[in-house]
Design goal:
Elements: H1 10-24, E1 28-32, E2 38-41, H2 44-49, H3 53-56, H4 61-64, H5 70-82, E3 86-95, E4 101-111, E5 116-123, H6 125-147, E6 151-155, E7 161-164, H7 166-172, H8 176-179, H9 184-187, H10 196-206, E8 210-216, E9 221-230, E10 233-240, H11 242-264, E11 268-273, E12 278-281, H12 283-289, H13 293-296, H14 312-319, E13 324-331, E14 337-349, E15 352-361, H15 363-385, E16 389-393, E17 399-402, H16 404-410, H17 414-417, H18 422-425, E18 426-428, E19 446-455, E20 461-472, E21 478-487, H19 489-503, H20 513-526, E22 533-540, H21 543-550, H22 552-569, E23 575-580, E24 583-589, H23 594-609, E25 612-614, E26 617-619, E27 623-630, H24 637-653, E28 659-661, H25 664-680, E29 689-698, E30 703-715, E31 719-721, H26 723-733, H27 735-758, E32 764-768, H28 770-773, H29 778-789, E33 796-801, H30 802-806, H31 809-822, E34 825-831, H32 838-841, E35 848-851, H33 853-856, H34 863-878, E36 882-885, H35 891-899, E37 904-905, H36 916-926
Parallel strand pairs: 27-28, 30-32, 32-33, 33-34, 34-35, 35-36, 36-37
Antiparallel strand pairs: 1-2, 1-5, 3-4, 4-5, 6-7, 6-10, 8-9, 9-10, 11-12, 11-15, 13-14, 14-15, 16-17, 16-21, 18-19, 19-20, 20-21, 22-24, 22-27, 23-24, 25-26, 29-30, 29-37, 30-31
Helix pairs in contact: 21-22, 22-23, 25-26, 26-27, 27-29
Bound molecules: ligand C2E.
């Protein structure tokens, strides 16, 4: 700028200095006149505007103001002149002389006094450009920080947030914009207790960046945090890595699984690299080949003598993408070999080539296959040799395989059998087509002990026992039937025979007790809603006599004839059974109750009272029948039998050849009988028995000749029980043997004492039951008693019943002979009630016949009775036997007996049975009794 020195004094110097300063100034300095034209300019104008100071003089400011800013310039001028005479830092774009536009910051002052405008201007083009660039950069950075996936925040050294992007805000639940300037812990209080804070502090203090992973509990997620220190604080980036961690964990597990699989695989596994060096082997490979892992690793597989395939063809195939499956023998370290199946495949890993070989040891499989072959061979041999028929059939029943035994069993050659179907081979075969055995999965798979009937080629039937199995697919559809069968035709016949034997009486062929029970039960079941059934127990009255008289064979003939007759009488719906011995049972429906039953019973008795010819003799066997009716008498089968049995005994007791219906009182009687039986057992040991004696009188001289010992039972509760009530029970139970032994000893002992007391012989007669007589030692017992008591044998008479005599005639006869040899006397009791005839008695050494009371106990005089007794006595005498009449109750009878020359008598008319002391008085009064004589 040109300066004018106005005076040589200090003022001029100052002006010179100012002028120099102005010219040296870097800013543009100009003075404009009131019209806006340049009056002066400093040297900086050249650099800033391209105009020298002189060139500007006279120019209007709008000559250098950018045309776009002329308005601004005018407004500025106006404002300076009228409003604010001083204004600074107004940015205005100017056009340089060379046309370039520059931005200038103007400071202006209007001086009214001088009517001048003083301007300074500084080029701020670059500054403006730099600021713009900075703004752009900041905008770009902010955008970037917002758009990056990471959350980001920065704090200054005072831990105040200087920046936070949206993600960071969201992370702690605040608006990122509002967080700026606030303390970090105020915005994110959860940080205080997290592991992150100490690391931020350390990064701040050490100025060292840090990266770490952190579990952010408030959000339950893993984050990765990167911390960068900067000039004033730290910047923190973080982002969620839960998915990554999960993926890593999954990968780790998967790798672990793979490693486990690899190591625990049943097969040997080797991984070989492209140079055929072993890079990995599993445990099984080490174990199988006998090498340690280290010995494998790194060594070329071709060098190790393992028998591994390494040929070019194999490699070429693998490299062409074809996995190889090879069958070869492998070599182990110890020199042993094993057959193996080797599967090799190729794979790339990060550009490197590898081969994976899976070596399956086939030793076990081959061994198993060999065993299977051998087993199949053995099976075939067994099937060929087995005596059981063997077949395999397809689901449609077609035979697929058979063995020679089946050919033999069926009579067909193999080829013919293989052309048959099950339903053609078998008459009945439950599984003729397997579909019928259940097509679904619920059909049987095992056929056990199934009976079937096979049709022989010649037409006859063979029973077989079939055992087999049905092979099924997974959904249960039958695939085949395999089975073995054995011929059970013989067994079936035996079974049916056994069944017959088990249910029928062998002699008569009638149903036995078991089948009777079954059939009666069926009858009762059929009557569940009405109807009646009669059960009749039938006992032949004279079977025993026939049996004993004519022998067992004739007895059997009689029983068969009885069976035939009974069968003939009954209806087909009825049943007749034999229980054993001479006991039969008839059971039948009786719609009209007792009346119908009575008609049946009459018919039964009718056919049994008609003579039966046995061994050339006509025999009338007769029967006693007990009838029980369902439902009125008994509701169960057992009770029906029991009540019918009871009624039958009653019928027998009532005089035979009759029937009796059951009556409830009969049960009472049988219950009494049972009670007696129970108390009879201990009676002997308890000393409840005593003997009474009934005197026997000789009719010729009416003198006492002896007495009959009669047992009495003094029952502790029932008082005196009659022998008629308990002797039969004692016989049935066998107690009679012991009781009889006691009676014999007691009678002999007492009689011997009486003899000693009165000094004369006393005869005693003792009853002996059939059971006693059947004892082999009976004779010895009598001998011993006589010896022990000292009773003379001739003073003892044994009374035997007719039935006892005919039990076993041969044995009885020889025993009686032995008894006779002892010197004792033998009498037949109750003569006339049984079947025996005098002629028949001649076979036994009998001394006395005791005529039953039913013959002599007559109320009316009857000539024919006398004649009968007379004839009987005469005949007995002719056979050398004495006759003793029993049960003489009246003088008339006594007279009759005496007239008939009967030898002796006893009875209430003469004397009742009495105690020993009473007997003593009688003996004493009677004088010397004679010995019992014939
Ligand atoms: N109505 C009537 N009865 C008369 C008369 N005179 C005697 N009696 C009875 O007739 C039965 C005669 O004996 P039994 O025929 O041997 O018949 C005996 C005998 O078979 C048996 N018995 C008695 N004691 C024994 C014994 O010690 N052993 C054996 N095995 N049986 C005995 O018991 C049966 C009955 O004996 P008891 O009741 O003592 O009955 C006795 C006797 O008391 C009379 O005038 N009228």
């Amino acid at each position: 700028m040109n300066t004018t020195v106005s005076s040589p004094d200090g003022t001029a110097l100052l002006a010179a200095e100012n002028s120099a300063l102005i010219d040296n100034a870097l800013d543009l300095m100009v003075v404009l006149d009131a019209n806006g034209r340049f009056q002066r300019a400093n040297a900086a104008s050249r650099a800033l505007l391209g105009y020298g100071p002189d060139e500007l003089i006279g120019l209007h400011y709008n000559d250098i103001v950018h045309p776009d800013q002329h308005g601004l310039a005018l407004a500025l001028e106006a404002s300076l002149r009228k409003v604010h005479p001083e204004q600074s830092n107004v940015a205005v774009r100017l056009r340089r002389k060379d046309g370039r536009v520059v931005l200038m910051s103007l400071s202006a002052r209007w001086s009214d006094q001088h009517q001048r405008m003083f301007l300074t201007a500084r080029d701020i083009t670059e500054q403006q450009q730099a600021r713009r660039a900075l703004q752009r950069s900041e905008a770009a950075l902010g955008g970037m920080l917002e758009s990056i996936g990471d959350a980001f925040f920065a704090v200054d050294s005072a831990w105040r947030i200087t920046y936070a992007n949206r993600k960071a805000g969201e992370f702690v639940g605040v608006n990122a914009g509002t967080a700026i300037g606030r303390p970090l812990l105020e915005v994110a209080p959860d940080l205080e207790h997290s592991e992150a804070l100490p690391r931020y502090v350390r990064a701040m203090e050490t100025r060292q960046p840090d990266t770490f992973e952190l579990y952010w509990a408030p959000h339950a997620l893993w984050i990765e945090v990167r911390v960068y220190p900067n000039d004033d604080g730290i910047s923190v980036y973080f982002h969620g890595i839960s998915a990554k961690r999960e993926a890593e964990q999954a990968l780790r597990k998967s790798e672990q699984r793979f490693r486990n699989l690899f190591n625990q695989a049943g097969d040997s596994v080797m991984i070989v690299d492209g140079a055929l060096r072993i890079v990995s082997v599993n445990d099984q490979a080490c174990t199988r080949f006998g090498y340690a892992r280290d010995e494998f690793l790194g060594r070329p597989v071709t060098e190790m003598n393992l028998g591994m395939p390494g040929g070019h063809a194999v490699l070429a195939g693998l490299r062409a993408g074809q996995p190889q499956l090879l069958r070869m023998d492998k070599l182990c370290r110890d020199g042993s070999t094993f057959p193996a199946e080797v599967q090799i495949s190729r794979f790339d890993d990060e550009g490197e080539e590898f081969f994976l070989a899976v070596i399956r040891d086939l030793s076990d499989r081959e061994h198993a296959e060999r065993q299977l072959r051998e087993s199949e061979q053995r099976f075939r041999e067994v099937i060929e040799m087995t005596p059981a028929g063997y077949l395999v059939a397809s689901p449609d029943g077609a035979l697929r395989d058979v063995n020679p035994a089946l050919c033999a069993l069926s009579g067909y050659p193999r080829e013919m059998l293989l052309a048959l179907r099950l339903h053609e081979l078998f008459v009945s075969f439950p599984l003729a087509t397997l579909g019928e055995g259940g097509n679904g999965g619920d059909g049987p798979s095992v056929v056990q002990d199934m009976e079937a009937v096979l049709r022989h080629r010649n037409g006859f039937h063979i029973h077989v026992l079939f055992n087999g199995s049905i092979k099924r697919s997974e959904d249960g559809t039958p695939l085949s039937l395999t089975g073995l069968m054995t011929d059970i035709t013989g067994r079936k016949a035996a079974e049916s025979r056994l069944q017959q034997l088990a249910t029928h009486d062998t002699l008569t062929g009638l149903p036995n007790r078991a089948l009777l029970g079954e059939r009666v039960q069926q009858m009762l079941d059929a009557c569940a809603y009405g109807g009646a059934v009669a059960v009749m127990f039938l006992d032949l009255d004279r079977f025993k006599e026939v049996n004993d008289s004519f022998g067992h064979e004739m007895g059997d003939v009689l029983l068969c004839e009885v069976a035939t007759r009974l069968r003939r009488v009954i209806r087909p719906t009825d049943i007749v059974a034999r229980l054993g011995g001479d006991e039969f049972v008839v059971a039948g429906y009786c719609a009209t109750g007792q009346a119908a039953a009575a008609r049946i019973a009459d018919k039964l008795l009718g056919v049994l009272t008609a003579p039966i010819t046995v061994g050339g003799h006509d025999v009338i066997v007769g029967a006693s029948i007990g009838i029980s009716m369902f439902p009125q008498d008994a509701q169960t089968r057992e009770m029906l039998f029991q009540t019918a049995d009871t009624a039958m005994y009653r019928a027998k007791g009532a005089g035979r050849n009759r029937y009796r219906f059951f009556e409830p009182e009969m049960t009472v009687a049988s219950q009494v009988r049972m009670a007696l039986e129970v108390s009879l057992r201990p009676a002997l040991a308890r000393g409840e028995f005593e003997l009474h004696y009934q005197p026997r009188i000789e009719l010729a001289g009416m003198a006492l000749v002896g007495m009959e010992a009669l047992i009495r039972w003094n029952h502790p509760e029932r008082g005196r029980v009659s022998p008629q009530q308990f002797i039969a029970i004692a016989e049935e139970t066998g107690l009679i043997v012991d009781i009889g032994r006691w009676v014999l000893l007691e009678a002999c002992t007492r009689t011997r004492r009486l003899m000693d007391e009165f000094g004369r012989p006393v005869a005693v007669s003792v009853n002996v039951s059939a059971r006693q007589l059947a004892q082999p030692a009976f004779v010895d017992e009598v001998r011993t008693v006589l010896a022990r008591t000292g009773l003379p044998p001739e003073c003892l008479e044994l009374e035997l019943t007719e039935s006892a005599l005919i039990e076993d005639i041969e044995h009885t006869a020889s025993m009686l002979r032995e008894l006779k040899r002892l010197g004792i006397s033998l009498a037949v009791d109750d003569f006339g009630t049984g079947f025996s005839s005098l002629a028949y008695l001649r076979r036994f050494p009998i001394d006395v016949l005791k005529l039953d009371r039913s013959f002599v106990l007559q109320q009316d005089q009857d000539v024919s009775t006398f004649d009968f007794i007379k004839a009987f006595v005469d005949m007995a005498h002719a056979l050398n036997m004495a006759v003793v009449a029993e049960g003489v109750e009246t003088g008339e009878v006594l007279d009759l007996l005496r007239a008939a020359r009967c030898d002796q008598a006893q009875g209430y008319y003469l004397a009742r049975p009495m105690t020993l002391s009473e007997l003593r008085s009688v003996i004493e009064a009677s004088g010397a009794p004679k010995a019992v004589t014939r």
